[in-house]
Amino acid sequence: MTQAPYLGLLTAVAVLAGGCANAGLQNTDALQQAMHADHKAAVRVLRRANIEDTPYRIEDGVTRSAFGAADLSLVAPADVAAWDKVLGALDDYCAALDCLASQKASTDFATASAGLGATLNALAKAQGVATDDKVSVAETAVIGLGSLVLQARAQSDALSVARKADPGFQAVIGSLIEALGFEGDPPVPSSHGLLASYDSDFSAGTAAEAKKFKGDSISGFASLGPDQKRASIQELQAWLKARQGHDEFVSSVKTLVSALDKVRRAHAALCGSDAEKASAAFAQLQAEIKGVKEIYDELKQD
Question: Phi, psi at residue 129, to the nearest 5°?
Answer without folding.
Answer: -80, 130
